[in-house]
């Protein structure tokens, strides 16, 4: 049995506790939060859980093997570092830290203490996202042209970080998971409407090698909850709508091919009429997807890595790669959408 402590039982913490308590070989035995009401809430649901306002009490408890950090982003580094230094395995919520320097420092601390460091890039554990990756890798869509991602909602407004740091980690981690490599450049524009200086709506363009282009819209200012990814390949196109209960993924046998018209050969083809565009609109297919809660798969993976001394799929380096992209987006945002190149080692 892996005994866990959780630090931060606000909006997201309860989902983590529920999942870790639902799997056979883990139990959340300690919960820390500043807020007395949140501590009483966890106690009502799980009466055996120890509660504290000071997370150091969790670190001093020898019965606790691992800690989940579900506090606001700007606090992740200090708390996660303290946990690793105290010899605990650590799962940190996304994004792993507020800077790449901090992420590198956590990676070093985990190496030194020989403990598991994992970041909750939830969607890399989601069955539809796994299916999308499988479809792209099989070549069914052909060469990927563009990926368009929309993650908008009304709220939840954050106090200290903008909408990019709050919502884009999900799409950045998914993009890198789908394509297998980080972007080479980003451009971001955004605006703050509700809280001064904290952008609540942003549009981001990402360049990947081989001319793959991705676009993201993240916003806390939309009347609709939209979680949609459209992937256009030269053979087929795919739409992944995560708000649907069924048929979350649809593959469209649609495309366009451009051919030279059957007109007398000329040295140059420089008018539109000399080319023929052929549109193809075939079947739509919705692959079967197993219905599993991503957080549960993520929780099982973390426990499995601890028990079997394995490197997580979403380890510290995976967290660092996402933070580097976030930093580049932030730099571009502050400079009116200037193109920021990413150095990828
Ligand atoms: N994976 C996902 O899909 C997902 C979804 C939502 C949020 N998150 C992440 O989860 C984290 C928490 O987000 P949230 O929306 O739950 O925030 P929140 O503000 O609702 O909750 C954070 C809680 O942490 C507590 N806290 C802060 N500092 C503390 C400290 N030093 N010691 C003890 N308790 C402390 C606060 O009192 C609060 O109750 C963030 O990193 C966020 O990005 C992930």
Describe the structure.
This protein has 345 residues and is of the alpha/beta class. It folds into 2 domains: 2-123 and 294-314, Rossmann fold (3-Layer(aba) Sandwich), CATH 3.40.50; 124-291 and 326-341, Dihydrodipicolinate Reductase, domain 2 (2-Layer Sandwich). The chain is 32% helix and 30% strand. It has 9 helices and 15 strands. A 9-stranded mixed beta sheet has the order 14-13-12-11-7-10-9-8-15. A 6-stranded parallel beta sheet has the order 3-2-1-4-5-6, with helices on both faces. Helix 1 (13-22) packs across helix 8 and helix 4 (76-85) packs parallel to helix 5. The longest helix has 19 residues, at 316-334. The protein starts with a strand and ends with a strand.
Q: Roughly how many Å apart are the termini?
A: 38 Å
What is the element string, with H for helices and E for strands?
Answer: EHEHEHEHEHEHEHEEEEEEEHHE
Total helices: the number is 9
Taking strands numbered 1, 2, ... along the chain, how are they ordered across the largest sheet? 14-13-12-11-7-10-9-8-15
What ligands does this structure carry?
A: nicotinamide-adenine-dinucleotide
**Whole-number tally of structural domains:** 2
Q: Percent of residues in beta strands? A: 25-35%
- Structural classification: alpha/beta
Instruction: Determine Rg (CA atoms, Å).
Output: 23 Å
Largest sheet: 9 strands, mixed
CATH topology of the largest domain: Dihydrodipicolinate Reductase, domain 2
Within CATH, the superfamily of the largest domain carries the name: Dihydrodipicolinate Reductase, domain 2
Kindly state the percentage of residues in helix. Answer: 25-40%
Oligomeric state, counting identical vs distinct chains: single chain
């Amino acid at each position: 049995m892996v005994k866990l402590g959780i630090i931060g039982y606000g909006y997201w913490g309860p989902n983590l506790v529920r999942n870790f308590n639902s799997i056979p070989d883990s139990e959340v035995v300690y919960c820390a939060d500043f807020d007395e009401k949140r501590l009483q809430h966890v106690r009502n649901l799980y009466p055996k859980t120890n509660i504290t306002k000071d997370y150091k009490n969790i670190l001093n408890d020898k019965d606790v093997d691992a800690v989940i950090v579900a506090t606001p982003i700007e606090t992740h580094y200090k708390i996660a570092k303290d946990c690793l230094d105290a010899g605990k395995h650590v799962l940190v919520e996304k994004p792993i830290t507020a800077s790449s320097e901090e992420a590198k420092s956590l990676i070093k601390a985990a190496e030194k203490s020989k403990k598991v460091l994992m970041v909750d890039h939830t969607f890399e554990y989601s069955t539809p996202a796994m299916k999308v990756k499988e479809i792209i890798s099989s070549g069914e869509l052909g060469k990927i042209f563009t990926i368009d991602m929309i993650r908008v909602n009304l709220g939840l407004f954050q106090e200290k970080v903008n909408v990019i740091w709050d919502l884009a980690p999900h799409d950045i981690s998914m993009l890198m998971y789908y394509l297998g490599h980080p972007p080479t450049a980003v451009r971001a524009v955004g605006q703050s409407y509700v809280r001064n200086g904290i952008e609540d709506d942003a549009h981001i363009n990402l360049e990947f090698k081989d001319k793959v282009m991705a676009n993201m819209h993240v916003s806390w200012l939309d009347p609709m909850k939209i979680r949609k990814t459209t992937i256009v390949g030269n053979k087929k196109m795919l739409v992944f709508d995560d708000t649907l209960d069924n048929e979350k993924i649809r593959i469209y046998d649609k495309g366009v091919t451009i051919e030279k018209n059957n007109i007398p050969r000329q040295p140059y083809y420089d008018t539109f009429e000399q080319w023929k565009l052929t549109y193809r609109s075939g079947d739509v297919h919705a692959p079967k997807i197993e219905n599993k809660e991503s957080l549960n798969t993520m929780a099982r993976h973390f426990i499995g890595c601890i028990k079997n001394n394995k490197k997580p799929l979403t380890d510290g380096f995976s967290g660092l790669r996402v933070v580097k992209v976030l930093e580049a987006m932030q730099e571009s945002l502050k400079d009116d959408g200037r193109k920021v190149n990413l150095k990828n080692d």
